[in-house]
Specification:
The chain is mostly helical. The chain contains 15 helices and 4 strands. It folds into 2 domains: about 100 residues, no CATH class; about 180 residues, no CATH class. The termini are far apart. Keywords: Coiled coil.
């Protein structure tokens, strides 16, 4: 453009317009940053539910990939692991109902970013839960078992099979911690010594139910389902994570019945149950940081065993027993509620309805007198 065609303006005016334009750009960038921060905060907070009510180990990406595979190959046979992944995806959409549609609408990079933020929230919450139970479980064992010496709450090196109190609770249901057993002809061994020495005859693995999962910490070897998942320690841990740490001491009754409808759904999620039992096992052990394998014990397989106990009941009779167990948990944690029994005729006789009727009658009487 020829210089002669431009109309002269003052440098001051041009500078003001440039500054205004730059300020507008800065404001847009601030808004974009604030929007991005709100999304990050939302995804991280929502992700805190994943380790508690969906899956403890499996990445969300694996659940999504399995659901995609199921959609493409609807009629194909599935493996046990594939069934577990698909159930996990279903639980994910129950816990975070918006996820399914969000995954369909986002671009690949955006969905990857969302999943990373969800994972951050999930890992943070899991760390908080295990950290909370580390000290709480030790104090509960001290109160209930009265070991001598007491378990050191802040020192996990003295937990696990080193401690008699923790060892009895971690001991597999098929053994008794203090019993002698014949190893070979004319050779006997106290079970606790064999476990501590990690001999081949006393392998503690995820293939055994630990005694801390049983009512009164005792198992009937001829009826191993009796009392399983009913220990006081498990109820206290569940309440500490899902209600509040202060409520964990109230386990002898049947709860207070607060918010029973939602809490009933929460208590009956099998993944909640598995999460608690896995965290308690970790708290009783002497490992100081979370890991998947502790010696011969694989926590991921252990978690699967617990979920399978609830979800893969072998037949209708076993399913009835599982449902009864879940109902027992609901009562123990959240109590009973009779709100469904409040029929209209019952409500009409209660003071709120009675007062409303009386007020209306007084109003009508005044109107009639006028």
């Amino acid at each position: 453009m020829e210089v002669s065609l431009s109309l002269p303006t003052s440098p001051h005016a041009r500078a003001k317009r440039r500054i205004t334009a730059l300020m507008d750009e800065v404001e847009i960038l601030k808004q974009d940053k604030a929007t991005k921060q709100r999304k990050t905060t939302y995804y991280v907070s929502q992700g805190r539910a994943i380790r508690c009510v969906v899956v403890l180990y499996t990445p969300a990406e694996d659940l999504i990939a399995e659901n995609d595979r199921c959609c493409e190959y609807r009629d194909g046979d599935t493996t046990i692991d594939q069934d577990r992944l698909q159930r996990g995806y279903v639980e994910l959409t129950k816990a975070l109902p918006w996820v399914h549609e969000k995954l369909a609408s986002l671009e690949y990079e955006e969905s990857e970013e969302m999943l990373r933020k969800l994972k951050r929230g999930a890992d943070t919450a899991h760390g908080d839960d295990t950290g909370t139970l580390k000290e709480l479980v030790a104090s509960w064992v001290n109160n209930d078992c009265r070991p001598t010496p007491l378990i050191r709450i802040g020192d996990k090196h003295h937990h696990g099979f080193v401690s008699d109190a923790c060892g009895k609770l971690l001991c597999p249901a098929e053994w008794r911690w203090d019993d002698p057993v014949q190893v070979i002809v004319f050779v006997t061994c106290i079970i606790r010594a064999g476990i501590r020495d990690r001999t081949a005859a006393f392998i503690v693995s995820e293939n055994s139910w630990p005694l801390f999962m049983y009512q009164d910490y005792e198992a009937d070897i001829n009826n191993l389902e009796c009392g399983l998942m009913k220990s006081k320690l498990l109820i206290m841990a569940f309440k500490a994570i899902f209600t509040s740490p202060s409520s964990a001491s109230e386990v002898d009754g049947e709860g207070d019945g607060a918010d029973i409808i939602e809490n009933n759904r929460r208590a009956q999620r099998q993944s909640d149950q598995a999460k608690v039992k896995t965290c308690v096992r970790f708290a009783l052990s002497n490992i100081t940081s979370w890991c998947t394998v502790d010696g011969d014990f694989d926590y991921q397989i252990y978690w699967n065993n617990i979920v399978d106990f609830f979800e893969d009941a072998p037949g209708p009779a076993a399913r009835v027993r599982v449902n009864e167990l879940l109902e027992w948990w609901t009562r123990k944690v959240f109590g009973k509620n009779h709100h469904q029994d409040l029929m209209p005729d019952v409500v009409s006789r209660m003071s709120v309805s009675a007062l409303a009727t009386q007020r209306q009658e007084k109003k009508d009487a005044v109107f009639d007198s006028d």
